[in-house]
Structure formats: C-alpha cells, structure tokens
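Why show two proteins at once? Because comparison is the fastest way to build intuition. When a single record is shown, students tend to memorize it. When two are placed side by side, the eye starts asking what differs. So, the first record is below.
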Amino acid sequence: VQLQASGGGLVQDGGSLRLSCAASGRTFSSLATGWFRQAPGKEREFVAGISFSGGRTYYADSVKGRFTISRDNPKNTVALQMNMLKPEDTAVYYCANGVGSGNYYTTNWNRWGQGTQVTVSS
C-alpha cells in the first residue's frame, strides 16, 4: 500500500483545511489509518486515527472538537477535516496506516506517505 497526502496550504487563524490521504493497493480497507504531524524542532506527534471500518476514531487532546477524521473505503481515501485552525497547528502532516485499532498505542504504524505542509498564520 502506498499513501499520498494532499490538501495542505496556508490559512489564517480560525480557518479550515481538508487533508486527503489516497492509498493504492487492495489491503487499504483492512488497515487502520491515521494522521501525524511534525512541527519544526519538534517530534512527530499523533493527531487522529480511524479503524479499518471507520467505526472507531481517536484524537489527540489538542485537536478534539476541531478536527474530524473519516474514510471512504471504496475510494481508498481518508480525510482529515481541520476547523478552527490555530498557529500551533502549523506542521507537516503525514498519513500512515497499519494493523490495529487506529489508536496510537495499539496500531503498528508501518506505512507512511510523504507529508503535506499546513501553515496557519496569526
């Protein structure tokens, strides 16, 4: 499975963006998928995850209530809708997938896409 993230850009404080992760391969619908981000000088952090069926979702505390992860298995895509963006959300965002629940701790995140830059100006 190969992953391709897109949808990043420059947005003002309080604005919205929608990221998309497109996957190739027939196993996509059997894998949990998640979004991670890495800001300059900081470690990569988990943002959101979704189970293979889409029935369970998980979020970092910092994005709960603002971000929504969803998936469309027939189209092999996972989206991250980001609302009420803040300057501290500025980072390169990556999608990843693997076997597990979609929770950061219980998923083997072993496939990664290239990142897409999100910049939130104040």
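Second record. Ask yourself what differs from the first in the token line.
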Amino acid sequence: QVQLVESGGGLVQAGGSLRVSCAASGRTFSSYVMGWFRQAPGKERAFVGAISQSGANTYYANSVKGRFTISRDNAKTTVYLQMNSLKPEDTAVYYCAAGRLPVAVPRQYDYWGQGTQVTVSS
C-alpha cells in the first residue's frame, strides 16, 4: 500500500510559479507511475500529467503542456509538479496519484493523496 501526501499549494498571482510536492510512503514507490490531477469547483477531476516509473517519460494534458513539468526523485519517494506561467483557470485542488499506467483516467489509479489547493489570482 502507498500513502501519498501533497504539499506546497497556495495563492499565487497570474504569471507566477508554484511547485507542489507529493511524498509517498512505502518501498514500492519506484514501481508506480505517478499522475497529477486537478479538480476545480463544480468540475470533474481532470488529468494534468503523469511520469513513468523511472522518470524517463512524462505526459501532459494539452492545457498545461509547456508550462508544467513533472519530475520525481525515487530515492526521496517524492514526485513534483512545477507550475509556471500560471493562469486563473489553473485554480483547483491538485491531487497526486499512483498507478500502473500513465493514463488520463482517474479510476485507473490505485492510490490518491488528499489534495492541495492552488489558487491563481488575476
């Protein structure tokens, strides 16, 4: 079993940057694809991106491509989401998730963090 805890959310102005982290427990972290999702009020949970087990491959939603970067440190069992050029529409609760495939479907992920709020002011 994997437990995930996000941190680093907050309030930032449009155009600014923020990095959120997701710390995982357990020695099997490196065997999981790690995904990031976000959910805005009244909207469904949406795929942001994912990173392969080794970190060699990353995948992004079109809405964040070129602005967001996912990385991981398997030694620290932590995955990161670096967000640049933030827009008000990026405002959401951001979740990390652990799964077996880098897919955009939330139900394909086995474990979830509690989420961290990111608010981008205009």
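One difference worth noting in the second protein: The radius of gyration is 13 Å.
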